[in-house]
Design goal:
The chain is mostly helical. It has 15 helices and four strands.
Length: 443
Amino acid sequence: MKYKWKIVLTMLVLLSAGTTGLYASDGKVVDSGATAWMLTSTALVLLMIPGLAMFYGGLVRTKNVLGTIMHSFVAMGIISVLWVILGYSMSFGSNVLGGWFGWNPDYFFLKGIDDTIMDAGIPEYVFSMFQGKFAIITPALIAGAFAERVTFKAYCFFIAIWSILVYNPLCHWVWASDGFLFNMGARGAIDFAGGTVVHISAGVSGLVAALYLGSRRGYPYQVIRPNNLVIMMLGAGLLWVGWFGFNAGSSISSGLSTAQALVATQVAAATGALAWIIIESLHQGKATALGFASGILAGLVAVTPAAGVVQPYGAMILGMLASMICYMAIQVKNRLGYDDSLDAFGIHGVGGISGALLLTFFIRPSWMQEASAAAGGSWTVWNQLGIQVIAVLIAIVYSALMTLIIIYLLNKVVRFKSNEDEEMAGLDRSYHGERGYGMLNTD
């Protein structure tokens, strides 16, 4: 009989461990619920890269669709490898070189985190892979600014160098525990899921690259039409779905803050999409599919830094304002005539800046109370706005300057812009020897 009781007790212990977590070798407990959500979030963020590939791929001409899609997919290979080797260490290691970036020998090749459980109750492997997906999609976003006119070899070198010298330091400054923007003011610069680290850096870098390389041949006098708006819409839908992992996963938990970020993400995207087609209808007389998709992205980008600190009404206002501001930015681009091919700056750069600054006016009261307590007195909206302005300006200046240096030096070694014959033939044929569609190229 006593053996039966031992079996029952053993089963109860195992069931309890499956419900509440398992103990790691260092005594910390794995929270199985939080770990399951973070694994799901990691997969959702990875899903955004094929979504981005479809979104960008549908907007270019037929002769460039495969080459444009490859810009997103090759980032999955290059940046993943770099992230494991040194990216995670540079981003989340301890300050080196005055805090320019971080470094931790244990993070080199992730060799020192094989059995590490974080305070949040998730294996550090999971956290490192979740953050690695942000590192992948950020340089892939830049490709939209100079789509249809860059050599594949130069692009590969560019995203590798840019990731090391631009993304990793920015990530360290904003999200590492000893990053100077993380520790600025009462509770640091607010960037819940990457408005500054991802969207502002990618958008600004894309603008600099587009201006440096010049326009596509024939732009703006030749009409350049998207090859497949259906694929573009499906890509936008995948981005919307994946963004729940992007934002809600950034809570690094499975609880109240996760739910708050998820709701903010949904309503900002929906409001942004509706606002865009209303503006389009009033301005141009028609509501377009491309406009609806652009509004989705504008709302998502703007709420990204704010998802953890604003209530639903604030997220809705951010989505609406972002669509208005991004729409105007694209109209300005059309007037000025510079060739940001797929509006990487107009959506991601402008939307990221708008969200990072405007979120200040919609922060939930409980967050401000905690900030005041941390500051040892009153902490006002204007105090936080000052911190946000500093963070945004630093991201803009650093991204722009480093991108210009990288492209200038890289262009001395590897030709960055396609020559006339390559561009006219298309990226697919010139760099991949393939066609995106099994039909004759009529472009």
